[in-house]
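Much of our argument rests on the idea that a fold can be written as discrete symbols. The record that follows shows the chain in one-letter code together with its fold in token form.
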Amino acid sequence: MTRLLLSPPQCIAVGRCSSFGHLCAIALLSFLATGCQTFPRPQRTLAQQTLLEANCHPDGHPLPAKELAKVSLPPYVIEPPDILLIDALRVVPKPPFRIQSFDVLQVMVEGTLLDQPIRGLFAVEPGGMIDLGPAYGKVAVGNLSLNEAQDAVFRHLTRVLREPQVSLTLAEAAGQQQIAGEHLVGPDGTIQLGTYGSVHVTGLTLREAKSAIEAHLAAFLEAPLVSVDVYSYNSKVYYVITEGAGYGDNVARFPVTGNETVLDAIAGINGLSRLSSKEVWIARPAPSSMGCDQILPVDIEAIMKGGATATNYQLLPGDRVFIAQDHMVAFDSLVGRMTAPFERIFGFTLLGTSTVQQINRFPFGFNPNF
């Protein structure tokens, strides 16, 4: 029988390797005994879910909207950082108004010469004059009120016409800032209107925001009229959360326009990854005072393979579409993290053993190329 003789350093190295091997085996067995823990889908008893639906849906319609049974969302509530499209349809300064240079006046006159009518917009020139045409000349209207300017035009035209009938109104005030374009809702919940100041619109619907803006402008303008619409829906979103099987979870944020379903959410992240399982659900939050949060399980295979619509729910603002990880991939990742430290320790040990053996074999000189 052949015996293996080991020098003392080799015995020590082997003893250490054996100890580390035992330690690794014990750690691995302990890990396997605990089982693989992943994030579980929240569960409620049937009684709890029934009571919850009764409290959250007193109108008797507890079923959430789905692909073929969608509902219209409630009136849009403005919040930061939405972008509003505002256009002032009527910007007339409050009286007493004095005509200034570059104002635009609308002048209509009856009883003019047949070949030279007076009907249209006339800009006030620097110096306060308006030009009514070659046959009528210029009229000084600068620093006059609208009634005074109308009388001045009438007196000027009586030199050429027998009985002119003059109508003069303000079409555009050059000194008044025009309100048009996109307006960002700031962190303080207001929009800026330039020289007219700011208006708080957070928490208001579009109709309420229109009234609030017109009421604010009424301090500067005569019977202002504005139109308000949403240019960019930035505050109402849903989230798609993909569990990463130990490689880091991903969260994607998408705007809600009122027509998205679970399938749209999956398409938005280019489908399920190799780390994901087919276990999908929607976590739908609610105000804490109501306690009406919902967990809606999704049969994603039936939706994608069979065209089923029963669980292809319509997404609402604040929804979390959660895609659970693949349990086997997660287990493999966890085993890798558990054994990686021992692999490094074994590597250091084997390197030390090899170095000791080389020193023992070549005590008078170490040859690394041997």
Summary: The domain at 83-93+176-232 is CATH 3.30.1950.10 (wza like fold). The chain has a mean pLDDT of 81. The two ends are 30 Å apart (CA to CA).
